[in-house]
């Protein structure tokens, strides 16, 4: 559902609706990010209250009108409303799949599970961005590329309704048998926390949770930049829609496939330095995109950007799962994803304002610097969250 927009929508706004200002053109990402961020927060609470599966199905129902609105949109306002629905849908569906996988696996395989979840999603984003680029080049910007979205809604809703099983009881069992860390690191994080306390701990107070939240926000901030401005940058250099589609697909493809390995590696090597290094690699890649003006260098930079994002994305989710108590883990995931996907909105607004005022290259370099600073915050503030149980702790867990 996201992939159908990444190549086509920036070009659609410029060519069919005459959206020339960067800030106005990125409005659809701003709307999407705000809607998804807010819905992420409620998705965690609702999945605890009503169960995971009902929230997942509801998310797919909200997605039903999105591709139809993009096909028939008579004005740019219709595109904004479609992205409002898409943001709500993504907040409900993707948040729930994350929570369900954390429900189903223990701490030793949490990074692997998050890598599988995110790899499935972003590989699909890449494949669809590539496919819609070729469809748009062959058949025009509308309606052909968005026919894929209609198929995705049907598949997602059908599978969620008929195949997915409820996982909430797994989390309750995990909470009942939860063993505290022997080093006392999480002794202040009690089993019963209010929604407000979960928000404060995840956002500001707990060092690892708050460091992860800011890194997630900055990661999606630069993804909002990539989504909204890169196709315009590439088109301005004279690249064809097909080549723009290749570049739009390359970054999420490396990101998606890389997570099959990086999530599992974080189970072996730890979370902290995987996250910090990934943010710094993203910063280098963004700076290179801002400096380059040819397809081959942009392709290399997109590959590096995807690799850096792959190092960060599943590892941040695994770190949240490491620290949050099972009784309020779904709510903590919701708060983290509120901040992370709020980065789409912040990135769209910041990138648009900077590009309008100072030029598109300056906007890219500024966000590269912000990404490097975020990695430094992780290096200074976050402790290693992936705690390997001692033999004594493992014995207690086995006895339980």
UniProtKB/TrEMBL annotation:
<dbReference type="Pfam" id="PF07690">
    <property type="entry name" value="MFS_1"/>
</dbReference>
<keyword id="KW-1003">Cell membrane</keyword>
<protein>
    <submittedName>
        <fullName>MFS transporter</fullName>
    </submittedName>
</protein>
<dbReference type="InterPro" id="IPR005829">
    <property type="entry name" value="Sugar_transporter_CS"/>
</dbReference>
<feature type="transmembrane region" description="Helical">
    <location>
        <begin position="364"/>
        <end position="383"/>
    </location>
</feature>
<dbReference type="InterPro" id="IPR020846">
    <property type="entry name" value="MFS_dom"/>
</dbReference>
<keyword id="KW-0813">Transport</keyword>
<keyword id="KW-0472">Membrane</keyword>
<feature type="domain" description="Major facilitator superfamily (MFS) profile">
    <location>
        <begin position="1"/>
        <end position="386"/>
    </location>
</feature>
<keyword id="KW-0812">Transmembrane</keyword>
<feature type="transmembrane region" description="Helical">
    <location>
        <begin position="55"/>
        <end position="73"/>
    </location>
</feature>
<feature type="transmembrane region" description="Helical">
    <location>
        <begin position="273"/>
        <end position="292"/>
    </location>
</feature>
<keyword id="KW-1133">Transmembrane helix</keyword>
<feature type="transmembrane region" description="Helical">
    <location>
        <begin position="20"/>
        <end position="43"/>
    </location>
</feature>
<feature type="transmembrane region" description="Helical">
    <location>
        <begin position="112"/>
        <end position="134"/>
    </location>
</feature>
<dbReference type="InterPro" id="IPR011701">
    <property type="entry name" value="MFS"/>
</dbReference>
<dbReference type="InterPro" id="IPR036259">
    <property type="entry name" value="MFS_trans_sf"/>
</dbReference>
<feature type="transmembrane region" description="Helical">
    <location>
        <begin position="79"/>
        <end position="100"/>
    </location>
</feature>
<feature type="transmembrane region" description="Helical">
    <location>
        <begin position="298"/>
        <end position="321"/>
    </location>
</feature>
<feature type="transmembrane region" description="Helical">
    <location>
        <begin position="146"/>
        <end position="164"/>
    </location>
</feature>
<dbReference type="InterPro" id="IPR050171">
    <property type="entry name" value="MFS_Transporters"/>
</dbReference>
């Amino acid at each position: 559902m996201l992939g159908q927009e990444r190549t086509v929508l920036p070009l659609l706004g410029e060519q069919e609706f005459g959206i020339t200002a960067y800030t106005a053109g990125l409005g659809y990402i701003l709307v999407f990010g705000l809607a998804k961020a807010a819905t992420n927060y409620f998705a965690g609470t609702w999945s605890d209250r009503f169960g995971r599966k009902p929230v997942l199905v509801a998310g797919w129902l909200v997605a039903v009108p999105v591709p139809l609105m993009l096909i028939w949109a008579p004005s740019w306002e219709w595109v904004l409303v479609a992205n409002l629905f898409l943001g709500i849908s993504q907040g409900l569906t993707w948040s729930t799949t994350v929570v369900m996988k954390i429900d189903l696996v223990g701490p030793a395989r949490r990074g692997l599970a998050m890598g599988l979840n995110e790899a499935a999603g972003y590989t699909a984003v890449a494949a669809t961005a590539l496919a819609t680029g070729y469809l748009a080049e062959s058949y025009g910007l509308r309606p052909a590329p968005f026919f894929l979205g209609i198929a995705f809604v049907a598949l997602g809703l059908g599978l969620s309704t008929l195949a997915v099983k409820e996982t909430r009881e797994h989390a309750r069992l995990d909470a009942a048998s939860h063993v505290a860390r022997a080093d006392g690191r999480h002794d202040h994080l009690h089993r019963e926390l209010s929604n407000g306390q979960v928000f404060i701990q995840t956002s500001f107070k707990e060092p690892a949770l708050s460091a992860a939240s800011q890194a997630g926000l900055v990661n999606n901030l630069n993804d909002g930049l990539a989504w909204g401005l890169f196709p315009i940058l590439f088109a301005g250099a004279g690249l064809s829609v097909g080549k723009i589609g290749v570049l739009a697909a390359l970054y999420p493809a490396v990101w998606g496939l890389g997570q099959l390995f990086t999530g599992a590696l974080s189970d072996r090597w730890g979370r902290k330095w995987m996250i910090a290094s990934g943010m710094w690699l993203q910063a280098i890649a963004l700076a290179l995109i801002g400096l380059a003006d040819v397809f081959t260098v942009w392709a290399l930079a997109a590959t590096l950007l995807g690799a850096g994002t792959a190092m960060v994305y599943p590892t941040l989710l695994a770190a949240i799962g490491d620290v949050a108590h099972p009784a309020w883990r779904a709510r903590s995931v919701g708060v983290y994803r509120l901040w992370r996907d709020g980065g789409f909105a912040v990135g769209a607004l910041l990138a648009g304002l900077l590009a309008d005022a100072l030029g598109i290259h300056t906007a890219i370099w500024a966000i590269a610097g912000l990404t490097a600073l975020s990695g430094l915050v992780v290096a200074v503030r976050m402790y290693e969250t992936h705690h390997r149980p001692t033999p004594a702790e493992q014995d207690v867990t086995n006895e339980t």
